[in-house]
Amino acid sequence: MGARAVLGVTLAVACAGAFFASILRRKDLLGGDTEASGVAGLVEASRLLVDEPIHTTMRRNLRKRGIFSPSQLLSFSKLPEPTSRTASRAAEIMETAVQEVKRRVCRRRDTDELPTDVLSEELLSTMANLSGCLPHMLPASSPHTCLANKYRLITGACNNRDHPRWGASNTALARWLPPAYEDGVTEPRGWNPHFLYNGLPLPPVREVTRQVIHVSNEAVTEDGQYSDLLMAWGEYIDHDIAFTPQSTSKAAFAGGADCQLTCENRSPCFPIQIVTLRDYVPKILGAEAFGQHVGPYQGYDPAVDPTVSNVFSTAAFRFGHATIHPLVRTLDARFQEHPGSHLPLRAAFFQPWRLLREGGVDPVLRGLLARPAKLQVQDQLMNEELTERLFVLSNSGTLDLASINLQRGRDHGLPGYNEWREFCGLSRLETWADLSAATANGRVADRILGLYQHPDNIDVWLGGLAESFLPGARTGPLFACIIGKQMRALRDGDRFWWENPGVFTEAQRRELSRHSMSRVICDNSGLSHVPLDAFRVGQWPQEFEPCASIQGMDLGAWREAPPSGDACGFPDPVEDGGFLLCEERGQRVLVFSCRHGFRLRGPAQITCTPRGWDSPPPLCKDINECEDETDPPCHASARCKNTKGGVLCECSDPLVLGEDGRTCVDAGRLPRASVVSIALGAVLVCGLAGLAWTVVCRWTHADARPLLPVGEGEGDGKSPSLPLPGCGNRRDVGAAPALEVEQDLSCGSRGLCE
């Protein structure tokens, strides 16, 4: 098996090189008659190299349906939706093309130039356009309606009028420091074993986990102040604002390796609201650091970019993994434990049936409110449920979350720990004494430097995690700086932040400030009592309050009604769409929109005049997505069928639809028609064989009767036996009872008698 894998990878490398060479052969760097044609060929070759492993991945997942490895489960949980998938695929095509340019640069000249430095800006723009990246880089088209001044778009686009893509989904993470890649483009720190940092190679991430981060479940220390809900809320916020899609392929392209079949470092295998800023973040940063890095709200600042940063998404806000308790604690209606209350995390992953069979979500909520979170202690960073038993299903293996976090930071090109300390205005750590003081734990400093050898080499996630807490905080100074800076940017760069004047009325802001996480739990669960502060661990019953006494919002502050004497009123509902009311230059305006898959036919907004609405309401008409040739909804292997409000990709048997919902892949079986034909053929053959034997038996029996004189048969009741081929020897044929004859004659339909 190993030899075949090596041979396969070798052939892939050879074929990829030959493929590029055959398409792009020419005298200059790019090939083709002109640079433009060379770029076109380069991008097309890259597209084929990217698409093939994507389809290979889907075919493999189809063959293994129902037998998932932990890495497959992780990738399924991050499977991008169509828009994100399109952006991700385009990025991989662009990267593959750039890597081929790099390969040619290295082959033809001895230079330190990056691949992008040898291409003109015009050619790079052409590559971006042909790969599909350019539409995701251009400014978003912002709607110019009064509605766009009142409500944010669900994608976050057009929040900033001057920079429509700031803070929007499906845009690149912000870089606060230049990336650190070993090849200057994509190879993460620690990728090349001969690449040295301060004269030393970086340690493997798994060794860092084993020697510094891992701790047994029994050794964890519980937080005496904050509840498990603080951890859960952090995880929810993190996955909301810092979620990034996984690579569209886990298989090999451009000579890369299959991530599930190798441990080598080869492409692509390396291995956020009022409640949040008011109630959650101050507990994480501490009052002093919150005032320093976030501070009071001063209003919307259009010069602030709220885009989530790489270091926040992939390192700093992953601190919460060190606060995850190894047990899921469930409690009964009296907040008491019961048999099965302590459930190891590994028994809860991908087990939604437990909510149905074990009392719903309420027992889990009680445990989150009345049981403490794990305390982040320097020598108890992550428990074994996360480092040794993540995503256990049957015997399919496990993952290590700590190693994933470390490698994620390297994959994103994050500079080392000291670079980020300097970015935040903190002193660089130069010696063991410096690190020991920062962590307040000499043993941890020993283990870290024993692996990294130099403070500059330390991964930022580990360095920030190991720092001792600031007063009243659950993070050290580095992560407090990064998290605070990001939260302030998310607030100050948001035109629709709830405290920004003009977004809500004074009455509405007053109602919003009354809301709390405790009220949310009361309104959305069966719990009748909750703590006043849901993030502080509560002692039952003395620290729990009836839900009736927990204040909440009065939504009447948002009620909109036509003014008295209004000549317009509201029109009839729009099928497959709707409308919202706003004001423009003192006039009432209705702005219409359609559901996904439909397009407005008619005016997008109508205005109320003294004579009524100035135009009839528009209609919502179905979009035929199958007519889109620039970005077809289905892969070329599938048939596109338009449906009301959507599209259906269909496959010809024996192909089946892959996990992306648009590509047909081989199911590894015969077509259904072939199976039916074989089955019908088998039935026909058996039926004909049975019929033939019946005919033979009847014919043989008919030929035997005239040979027996009736008189003799009636005389002594005995007559000679006649052999009947295929039906056995029969005795006393002439005198046999009718029942016996019928039984013998029926034997032909069964094939052979005794």
UniProtKB/TrEMBL annotation:
Q: Domain named Sushi: which ranges?
A: 566-622
Q: Which residues form the EGF-like domain?
A: 622-665
Q: Name one GO biological process term.
A: thyroid hormone generation
Q: Which residues form a coiled coil?
A: none
E.C. no: 1.11.1.8
Q: Does the keyword Disulfide bond apply?
A: yes
Q: What class of enzyme is it?
A: oxidoreductase
Keywords carried by this UniProt record: Disulfide bond, EGF-like domain, Glycoprotein, Heme, Iron, Membrane, Metal-binding, Oxidoreductase, Peroxidase, Signal, Sushi, Transmembrane, Transmembrane helix
How does this protein assemble? Interacts with DUOX1, DUOX2 and CYBA.
Question: What PANTHER family does the database record attribute to this sequence?
Answer: OXIDASE/PEROXIDASE, THYROID PEROXIDASE
Q: What job does this protein perform?
A: Iodination and coupling of the hormonogenic tyrosines in thyroglobulin to yield the thyroid hormones T(3) and T(4).
Q: How is this protein named in the record?
A: Thyroid peroxidase
Q: What species was this sequence derived from?
A: Sus scrofa (Pig)
**Which gene produces this protein?**
TPO
